[in-house]
Structure formats: structure tokens, C-alpha cells
Known about the structure:
SH3 type barrels; single chain; 6-stranded antiparallel beta sheet
Amino acid sequence: MTTLPSLADALIVVVLLMPGFITFFLVRRISAIGKELSEFENFISSIIFSIITLIPFSIITGLDNIDKIRDGLFQPVNTSILFSISIALGLGIGWIYKKFRKNYQLGDPWEIMVKHYASKKTGGTWMTIITKDSKEYTGGLRHTGISDDRREIVLNRPIQIFRDASGVSTGEMELGQELLFTEDDIARILFYDSFDTPI
């Protein structure tokens, strides 16, 4: 006669699988793996990391068979050890893997660049915006939208640059204190490390 697993056994299975999901999540975040995986790939990867986590856990706690695990898993100290190992493995493997992925970052390149330059301690960032109708403007980065905001930019001390057919600057025109560019205006953006006008 087949016996259905008890609620306690089902809970044990869930708890034993959770560290693998945590470890896998940390590895992906730290090493900036943004590739979307199928549910099956995520599940299998998490199971593999759960098995890896259970090896040092069983050595440290002595819970090396199902009966011992059933009796001792929910003791606070053992649960803490399990999840501590999971987090440590995620941080460690993620850090090692990140060494081979130094040029990779999670997120949208727009947000990465804007946050990088907007956070500079030099007092701000000078930038050049090329619009979709091939006009060129330069000025200081004043405001910009990120995340769920519209990708708009406000330039401080905006200047329009005029160039001849060979690309040589032929003149400039100041355009007031601030100038707003909507996301529909912008074709390209050039960032600079200082407020030295790049003309």
C-alpha cells in the first residue's frame, strides 16, 4: 500500500530545496548573469546548488540521513547553519565567477551609465546629446529619468554646436539655463568626466 508523504515531510523537502534557490539567485546577481532561463533550467540549477549546500551541511551537523534530518532540521541552530552555508556559497561562487565577468553588469545600459556619471564627485558630468535630426547639444547633466520614469534628460547651461560637413565646429549658441530632451529626441549621448566643454 502506497503511503502519501506527510505534511512534515513535504515541508522538509521545501526547506532543503530553498537554499539552492537562494544560492543560485546570489550567484546570478553577483556575477551579473541576466540571461533569462526557463522554469525547468531554474529548477534544475537550484536542485544542483541545494545538493552542493547539503554536503557541508551534513558534515557540520551530522544530519546525514533522512531520519536524522527529519528529527533535527527544524532546530534553530541547524536551520541557521543551512541558510548560512547557502548564503556563503552564493556570495563565494558569485564573487569568483564575477572575476571572469568584470565587464558585465545587471541592468539597462542607460541606467548603468547615467548612475555612474551622475554619481561622480567632480560636481557633475558634462555631456553631448545628438538628436534624431542630427543636431548637437552640450551641457551639464542636470536631471534624468531612470527605472520606470521616462528616459528624458535636462541639460544645464545648454549650448548648441554647429559643425561643417567635415565635422569641424563652426560656432555655438547658448540656449538658456536648462534644456529638456525627451526620449523621442535622443539618438546618441556622449559622456565626459569633467565640465571642460568638449567642442
